[in-house]
Structure formats: C-alpha cells, structure tokens
Amino acid sequence: MAKKADAHHGGAWKVAYADFVTAMMALFMVLWISSQDKQILLATSSYFKQPFNALTKNSVGIVKTDDSGARRTDKSKASSAAANLDLLTALAKELNRMLKVSDVAAEKPVDMEITSDGLKVTLYDRQSQPLFEKNSAKPTAWGTFVLQNLAWLAEHNNLRMTIDGHTATGFVPISKDYGAWELSADRANASRRLMEFYAVDPQKIERVTGYADTRPLPKLSPESESNQRITISLNIHR
Questions:
Q1: Which tops the pLDDT comparison, 55 or 190?
Q2: Which of 65, 77, 83, 161 has its CA 20 to 30 A from that of 128?
Q3: 138-161 pLDDT, tens per residue?
Q4: 153 and 146 in contact (C-beta within 8 Å)?
C-alpha cells in the first residue's frame, strides 16, 4: 500500500508541471496579442466570438490590400492626359501653320479649342472668306484647302471625328423643300465626302449632323454670320 501511495504521489508533479506550462503559454499568447496593432486585436476577438466565421478578408490571414496599384494607375492616367494635351496643342499649332492663320486676326476663319475629348475645330463660312458657295453645299477653293489639310492632320494622327453643320438664323429657303436643315446637313456631308476623298478612313467618321440654326454660338446674335459654320471634333483614338 505504501508503494502504491508513493507511485501516485510521484506522478502528480507531472500534471502540475503541465498546468504550469499551459498557463505560461497562455500568458505568452496574451502578451504577444496585446503587443499587436488594432487590426490583429479585433481579428483575434472576432475569432473567439465566432471561430468559424472570423476568417474574412479583414482577418490577419489576408494581406491588407496595397493601393500602390491604384496609385500607379492614377499616375498612368495623369501621364496619358498630359501626353494627349501636348499632342492636341501641337495639332492646333500645326493646323494654324498649315492654313497660315494669324492668332491676332480680328475674325479668324478657323477657331480651335482643346476639350476633354480632343480638338474642336470650328470653320466659319463668312462672306469675307466663305467655305461654301452661297446657299449651296459646294466647297469654295478655300473650303477645299482647309478640309484637305484637316483631313491629312486627322488621318496622320489616327484621329476619329464628328462633323456638324450649322446655319445662322435668317437663311432664306431656296425652295419650300430646302431650308436651313437641309443646307446644314448637306454641308456637313459635303465636308465628310471631301475629307474621305483626301484619305480619311470612313470608319473614323463617327457622326455627321445638320443642326440648322438651333445651336447659335454664345454671346452672338443668332443672325451673326459666324453662326454659319462647320464644327469638326477630332478625338484621340486608342
């Protein structure tokens, strides 16, 4: 009986030691977790509350999303936008040079504006320098020269385009079946045909529209001859 008692007493220390080691490990884990950042603390707390649902994209098992890719994308877009702006500015200067248009002229025959989509070119059909013969869609020598150079510039730089025709208010219809709508549409189409003749790919012309006198220029009287115009928007194609 004494031997049995001694044997029983001799094994108790092993249980006590195991409890001690477990307690130390638990203390170590608590101290380690306490030293971590807030995200790990929340994830650990979530695990003990719902151990089977805690491993989400916000848990410590998933690396936090790196936004460097987004930053690189933003930088790439900014770089592309800057390159496009440089290209459009160069195109405007080149067209002015080709047409010998003075920047200081009181009434320029051609106006250019850089937009979010590309380069907007307005060709004015004024009496002093007409694009088309009076009350017709037949281009003058000047109109042909302008559209030829514009066609070359667009095709050389792989640009897409839209062509819009406009008239000034007060146009006297040639006949009851031919008014401002017909004239503006015919002039836009005549511009398209001429630019295609001078090598513009028809697939790059996205829209041809006649607006009659419904879209006068701002700060001008609807009757102003400057409203008699063709607007060609050159869009960068990617």
A1: 190
A2: 161
A3: 999 999 999 999 999 999 999 999
A4: no
User: Domain residue spans in the chain?
Assistant: 85-236
In which residue are the tokens 């790059």 written? 204
Whole-model pTM: value is 0.66
According to DSSP, the residues that pair with 160 across neighbouring strands are 235
Distance, in Å, from the CA atom of 86 to the CA atom of 43, rounded to the nearest integer, reads 50
Q: 209 - beta bridge partners?
A: 164
Domain 85-236 has CATH 3.30.450.150: no
Strands 205-210 and 159-166: parallel
